[in-house]
Structure formats: structure tokens, C-alpha cells
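Self-study notes.
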Amino acid sequence: MEADHPERLGFSLRYMNGQAVLIIPPEEKRPRPVYADDIAARIKLLGIPPVPARRIRDIIELGSGQAETLAEWPAGAQLSARVVVKVSEDGMQAEAVVEAPRPGGAPIDKEMLASAMTAEGIIKGIDEGALRILLKPGTDGKPLVIARGKVPVKGRSARTECLFITERGKPWKEINSGRIDLKELNFIQNRKAGELLARHIPTIPPEDGYDIHGTVIDTEPVDIEILLKAGEGVLENEEGLEAEIDGNVRLEDGEIIIEPTVAVKNVDYSTGNIDFDGSVSIEETVADGFTVRATGDIHVGKTVGRGHLEAGRNLVLRAGLVGDGEGSCSVKGDLYAKFLEGAGVEVSGDLIVTEAVLHSEIEISGNLILSEGRGEITGGIAAVGGGISCKRIGNVYAGVTRIYVGCPPVKLKAFHQLGQELKTIREEVDELDRQIDYLRSRSETDPREITSMEQGMAIRNRRLKEGAAELKEMRKTLKAADGSVIAAQDRIFPGAALSFGLDEFLLGDKGLERVLLRRENGRTVVHGLKPGEEITLSAEPAL
């Protein structure tokens, strides 16, 4: 039952500041006649202390429309509206709900809101509009956010926003399941003179935040970015950095550089060999017997045969290389190709092939990745400084597929070359020994001839002794690093010969299926390989 509806009762009787008050509108504004007995009955009903009848009649007669005091009524406070404020744990937000007054209680007012906020320590981020809404009728029981803190804004130093691809650590375009689209593999990003390469972004100043209790929340320190500079072939203007010449844009040691590029349809008798300080883009192919050297990247659109390619950075063979024992390539960065067959390949970074490596001799300081298509390496020799991820190794008809993993190919090659040298010298010593025995069996032999052969044999024996010591020391360095892996998602055929460093792993007569071989604590450990399992290879090239 409500006690504060003058439109229905003709008067308002309620609690205010510790007292019971009576409000009687002027007579002309009363919706109905007001009687002292009705007011007395309601005073009794609400539990207000007794009030003299004369006092009630005087207030009716006065009709001031103002709150007129009747009696002290401390208990009336329990009937008044209440404000319940909830503060979030982080102190960044406060929410208020108004509980409607009971009959005779005072409605919500500014003082109640202020008192409730003060009790919760709310002094900052107060939403005055939300407070005005709470004071309106009809908002009882509806939660409303009345204060919000401010999240600190981390500033940012002035920076350079590049308008070209700068991070090429994984430069191929992944279209699904880690597949590589060689058509989208563009290391060469040609720009025209006057074209904007990067724009300057001004400083964003940091701003401290605060919670609703007024506690300052310090912003994080600004990360100072190094502004990129204009390198060779690049100019700086008010907007940023622009190309001064046509060419391939790249980022190197904090400088944006435009390097010259050569774009030809074919390398053949119409062009001659190419030796270029920059990058080279070849739309079709390189004819047999021709050479392309570039200090930058090389892109070739179609299959290369018995040609030779040397890239100072990366080489992209959108088709492949069929060397027939003569074609070769040397790459200081990474090599991406569809296939390699009968080729000699040296790569300082990673070799990523989308189909197969067949009967080739490859030396890779990084990793060998054959993740799609046939995904096989068959025949030939592969020395891989990192690890191998493929589908198949070897073939029942391909003969031996020789693979070394986990140690620098340069050191491995030097070890084998020294071994071959010592083998040749040993054969020479044996031959000299036979010749000396033969000459000694003949009476007419000149002793000086025998002496000369003995001196030659002594020189070779000294080299054999020195070489054996060198070979022993080199062997110590050719141990595969722990974590080196050979992963085959399909099969390793028994015709394959696998070694971690110089430690050969014996496959057995049946080979292995879905297997991951990993070097652990100086031993080669066999693990099963689940379909689609992600394989982690060594990130750093072996040196």
C-alpha cells in the first residue's frame, strides 16, 4: 500500500530527514477533499507517533503544498528507498540498483545517491547522466552503471609503416594444410619510381588511467621504435619514403632499399649469361649451358635443364630443375622448387620442395621440407644440416638413397674428401711398395731410382699419418645435434641409408612406416608418427 499518492488520497504522508511530514496541496489543486480523520488513520497505520488533531487541521487549512513536520520518526528511515552499489573487483566499474520505498518511505534523491557512492569510495569517472536516470520514477530494480574507470592508453613512438612485405621468414602463401603455392611466392616486389614505399606514423602520447576510487593506473612504458631510413634508391619526403628508381623493394638492416632488377623472358643466346648486382626474374627458362648469377633473388617460371643458377639470397623455381647430372644451383638463402632431378644443389638456408627430389646431390645447411605432392626423396645423396620432413624416403627400384642429417654439410664434405684423399695416397703407397720390391729383385736396377721411390713413399706415409689425425679430430665434430629429426609420414624404404652425423641408423629389411627418428642424448630414438602430426625442425642452419 502506498502512502505518497496525493492524486489518489489528496495528501502525502512520508518520512523525511528523521521526521514524519505531511504535504497538503492548496485547496484548488486537491483531487478530492482532505479530512483530518483520514490522515490520523494513516498515521496510525504507518506506525508514526501520535500527532495532535489540531496540528493536522492547521496543516490542512494552510494547504502550503510543502512538507510540514508532524513528529519525530526515526523508524521511518527503514521504509525509505535504498541504493545498492556494487563495485567490480578491479575497481574499474560501479553499478547501482534503486530499491523502491515502502509505504511512507522517502523516494530516492541526490543525497541518497551521493551517500551510497561515498560509502563505496567512488570519486572518479562518475556518470552524471546515469545518476539523473536513477532519480526518475520507474527505474526501480534496474541496474545501471554509474561510474567507470579509465583504462591506461599505451603510447607509441613515431614509426614507419611499410607498404610492402617485410617479414619473409615464412614467405610462402599457405592456402590450406601448409601447402605452398609457388605462383604466389614473390620475393621480388617491383615498385616504380615515385611510388610510396612507407609512410610516417606520428607519435601517440601515453595516457595514465584511473579506477573509480581515484587510484592512478600507470600506463606501460612506450616501446621506442627505430624509424626506418631511406637506403639506396629511396628518397624521404613529408609523407614517408618513396622509390627513387624502378626496382625491387626490400628491408635490410633498418633501411628500405630499392635494388635494380632484370626481367627477361628466357636466358639463352639472345641474352647471354647474366651476372647481375640485384634480382633477376625469368619468365620462362634458362637454356642448357647458360649461367645466371644474381646478388639478390632469382625467380624462374619454367623447368631449368643443364643450366647453372647462383642466388645471393633466395631462388624460386616455379617448376623445377632437371639437371641430367650437369644442371646445378647455389643459393645463399632458401630454395623453393616443385622438383629437383639429377641436379647438384647447395643451399645455405632451407630447401622446400612441393613434389620430389630425385637422384640429386644436395647440400643443405638448413632443413629439407617435402610436405605435399609425392613428397619423396629418392636416390642420390643428401647432406642436411637441420632435419628432414617428407612423405617417403627411397624406393624399391632406386638403389641406395644416402642421407646425412644433423651436422654441417661443409664439414661432412671435407671429411669425405679427406677420407678419399687418404685412400688415394694409401693406394699410391701400396703401388710404390710393389714397384720397389720389383726393382730390388732386378740386379741391374739403379739404386737411385729405388731411393727416389722410397722418398716419395715416406712423404706419402707422413701425409697418411697427419691425415689420420685430422680425420680423427674431424670425426669428433661430426656428431648430430640433439633434436635433429628425420620424419616420414608414409614410409622409409629398406634401400635407404640414414646417418645422424656419422652415426648410421640400421633400418632393417622391411624399412619403417610413419616414423619420426630423433636424436636424443646422443642416440637415435624411434617414434611413431600420427597422421597430420606437426613436426618441429631445427630453426637455425648448421654452420
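Second protein, same conventions, sequence then structure:
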Amino acid sequence: MTTRLLIIGGVAGGATAAARARRMSETAEITVLERGPYVSYANCGLPYFISRDIEKRSALLLQTPEGFDARYRVKVEVRTEALEIDRAGKRVRAVGPEGERWFPYDKLILAQGGNPIMPPLPGAGAPHVFKLWTVPDMDRLDGFIETGKPRHAVVVGGGFIGLEMAEAFRRRGLETTVVELLPAVMAVMDREFGVQVAGELATQGVRVLTGAGVKAVLADRTVELTDGRKLPADLVLFSVGVRPELTLARSAGLALGPSGGLLVDDRLQTSDPDIYAAGDMVEILHRVSGKKIRIPLAGPANRQGRIAASNALGQPTPYGGASGTSVVKIFEATAASTGLTERAAREAGFDVGVAVIHKEHHAGYYPGARELSLKLTYDRRTARLLGAQAFGHAGVEKRIDVLATALHGKMTVRDLAELDLAYAPPYSSANDPVNLAGFVAENDLSGFAPLVTAAQLKAELAGARPPLVVDVRTLGEWSRGHLRGAQHLPVDDVRWELAQLPRDRRIVLYCRNGYRAHLALRTLKESGYPDVVNLTGGWVSMELEGGLDVEGA
């Protein structure tokens, strides 16, 4: 018998589901209802049209209703909004250009995504206030820049879209300020990466204000912040989060999950056995924490659409969840992450280990080497990798993709140390940064070279029995800035000056990035010092952490 498959939502997960369904069945009747005027467009590319990195608007429109019908024999109804699901009658009421109609189904896939949050602030409805979520949003914003000639832009929110749009506005010649309520931008990563992102924005002329929100958009083309400051704002873009589109699902009585998304099982089936769902509206299993959460990213949404279609048409296909792997371009730099951050891993109850390296992305002697910051989190009980974060100007996404694969395979940090990765001087080092981070973590777990983070050092220094901190850098480095109260002992002098160091006190060693301190640590360990640890990431991580008492800088 012919299966009537109805899909609500024609972007990302919905479009993928439709194409997959046709590949599975030539006889299925497939219909897509899309509220907007476009189907299957590249919504992740919208900021890059505003920046003019993408010059042709048409490049973002991947398919048309006519094209979908010609290639896949899928009926696409654009400008058609679903209003009601009649689960008993297995039909959906929708309104479109032809008025209200009922669409029957045997299987239904919900792929409605989410909606950007627009805070109900005074002035939020003004004509120079924008969001960016759809092609019409993009067209309206681009037209305003072209005709209104704004000079000052304020981006409210320092997440993915906010940062991409800050770059886009700057490239269009606008003086741009990012306002973020949290202590750092890029809050999905640990704070030290937000600090690096903010630093890159500053070098490109973007002002970053954290710890403050927007109170009102004023008629004089300014915004008032919660701390009383006012900023010039000819253009305001809100990018403060995404809320799942659940109106239809909720009114149909479908079960919601604890994180606020639509509840689905491992086949992406909702509480109604004939209704499946995919994309930003659902909550899924986090592959590392094992908890149900929302991961509103395009990659998982597309894969979920494919799997939902497979299950809806009778091919059992389990979905194992996602690790939240993500990447963002910030001018010439890149920030990326996968799995659990240190903060999230601790909140999830893991016994967390942390290893940080700051290392050239390829062989240092080959021209063009750029420093890469890489942070691993791991379970100290099992050595299993829990997550990774990176920032730099080259090689970032390569390492995060390797580590995302390692997460998928439930690998340990010991496995990372043994990975056989491609090497030639223009691309990597004989020991890739992934291997090096694995070495550092492995040495920590074995006790060969125990680690302490900058945040942990800060807490220890404020405690009742602070450790002795020893700076093993050169005299020149020491003179340019060092931790107040630290003892200076260059690494090459350590074995000859052991008498300077007490054996009955905890000793924390640091250098610029951790390697020389590791050498000093091994000398002390081999000389019988019982409690010696290395500051992971060294002076670089100490500066990124902030709040430590530094002198001489």
C-alpha cells in the first residue's frame, strides 16, 4: 500500500527527511508543509551573505518547490502553516495561499525547528531592530544596511550567530559592539576560550561588553544597558538564544521532555507511534553525559531527518544521540568544541581531569606555524575522553573533528596518545597536538606528571596552606611579568639548585605553556620531592583565567 508521509518543516531536518524518504520508496506520497516562502535553504550561510563572503543570494537557495518536485517527486507547500494535528483522524489542518485545508497522513514527521528569542524590551519592535533566522530576515537586514547606511551596530548576545554577525557588520564598515549578559562570550565553551574569542574580536575593532544586558532600545538610536550605560545603535541585532517550536506538538498532546524539547525515543518516535520528529525542536541523548538535552545544530538536525524518515517508512534505524560538536569563525580565528566542557563535565558528576596545551599547529620550523590552544576534559576514574575545546588561527577544526571521532568511539586519553595521525611539516608535527594533549593527560592520570589548572591554583593560593609556586621560565620572561610571591628558578638550573626548594611543601611549577615545567617536575620527582604538580597550560592559561596576582607586567 502507498504510504502517505507528511512532513512539517522544509529546512534542514525536514528537507533531508523528504529526500531520504523518496530514496527509500518510489511509491510513497510525500508532502512538505513549510511556513516560510523558501524550502531547503542554507540558513547557516545567512551571516556570510551579510558579510559578502557569499556574494550571490541565490547560492543560499538550495532548492525550490518546483525543483524538489522534479527531482524527488515531493509536493512542497510553501507559505503554509500547520495549525492542528488531528491524531485520531491522522490529518493536519493548515492554512496557506489556498486557505485552510486538511492534509492526511499515515506517518507524520515534525521538523519545525525553533524560533529566535526576542526579549520583550522597550523598543524591541523598532524598524532598526533585527533578528537573523530566515531568508526574509536576511533580506530585511541587508536592505536596511544598503539604504539606511547605519554607522553603529549593537549585537545583543555573544553566541554563534551573534559573533558571526559582529564580523559581518564589521566587514560592512559598521562600528560594532557585542553585548553579552554572561561573564564571557561564547558561553557554550569554558571561560578561557571566551576570553580568547573576545581578544580576537578586539583586534578586529569589535568592542565586547560582558556582564551587562540590554534594558531598552531608545528612540534616539541608542540602547540602554542594565548598568546604565548607553551605546549608539543605528542597528540592533538580537541573538540571545533559540526556543523550540512546540506550539503544534503541545496542542496535539505530544509528550515533552525534561529539557523542554519534544520527547523522542532512539528511533526519533514521539509519544504517538505514527509521529516522528527531528531537529531543533527535539531533545536527544548526549552521547557523553547520557542525559537528554537539546542540541540546536544543523549537523544533528540533518542526520535526524534522515533517520526519522527511515523509521517512518519501516526501516528500523536507531539514533545514538550527538556530542554537540560545533565550530565558529571569528575573523581570522576559529573556536571549536566537542563533548563536555570542564564546567559541564563537573556539573554532570564526573571526576574531571583537565589537560591544556598551547602548541604550534604544525612543525614550528616550517613557515606559518600558529599557536593552537587545546583543552581536554577526561574522567579520572576511567581515562575516558569527555570533551575537547580549541582556539587558534589554523588547524583548529581538524583537531576537534579527530576528537569528536574519539568521543564517538568512547576512546580514552591513552588512546589519543597512540593515535597514528598524518604528519608532514606543513600540516602537523611528528607528535600532533592531539597526541601531545593525550600525553599530558596520560601523565596526569598515571601520576608521572600531575596537573593543576589555573582555577585550581587560584583556589589553593587563597587557602589556609598555599603551595610554593616556582616559575621555571627565563629571566627575561620573569621580568616581563610573573605571579606575585612565586620563586624564580629557570628550568636549566633546577637540578643544580635543589637546596632552594623545600621537600615538605606542595610545589606548583609553571612555564609559558607547560613543557619546561614538565621537565622540572620530573627532575624534582626523581630527586624525591613528594608533592609536585605542573600548572597545565602554564603562564598562557594563567593569563586567560585572570584573577591571579601578577607583578612586573
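Instructor comment on the second fold: The mean pLDDT is 96.
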